[in-house]
UniProtKB/TrEMBL annotation:
Residues 11-108 form the SnoaL-like domain. Transmembrane segments: none annotated. Signal peptide: none annotated. The lineage of its organism: Bacteria, Bacillati, Actinomycetota, Actinomycetes, Mycobacteriales. This is Nuclear transport factor 2 family protein. It comes from Nocardia suismassiliense.
Length: 133
């Protein structure tokens, strides 16, 4: 994998999300893909589970959102992508990190998502006492 191949994969991922149905998933993901929607979530396994998750998680192909992805790193068959996603007219705004592993055919075998929304607790102590230290 190289940066341009990962960028093309991410573009196809977005196109698949914006398309009706889930037929395009088999072009993007290996049949036994592992898909972890957050660092502590139990991974989904396989294309049928992923298709069900996609259909439940979106409003359909007409869903309005913007996505600004950036490939942060590529090392062999592993890539890290940062994606900013915003849904206009909703408070939904995300900054994500994706850890992706690919097979030799360019299909994703592992998708690990680290989503973060504004105001989401991040484990940092922002009390005035902690900030004075």
């Amino acid at each position: 994998m190289d940066r341009s191949t990962v960028e093309a994969w991410v573009s196809e991922y977005e196109r698949a999300w914006r398309s009706p149905g889930t037929d395009k998933l088999g072009d993007l993901f290996a049949p036994e893909v592992g898909y972890q929607v957050s660092p502590w979530a139990e991974p989904l396994t396989g294309l049928p589970a992923l298709a069900k998750f996609w259909e439940a998680g979106r409003d359909g192909p007409d869903e309005t959102f913007s996505m600004e992805p950036e490939v942060v790193a590529v090392d062999g068959l592993t890539a890290v992508v940062r994606a900013e996603v915003e849904y206009p007219g909703q408070p939904a705004r995300w900054r994500d990190l994706w850890v992706l592993r690919f097979d030799g055919e360019g299909r994703c075998t592992w998708f690990e998502e680290w989503p973060f929304a504004p105001g989401q607790p991040d484990g940092q102590d922002r009390s005035s006492e902690a900030l004075r230290s």
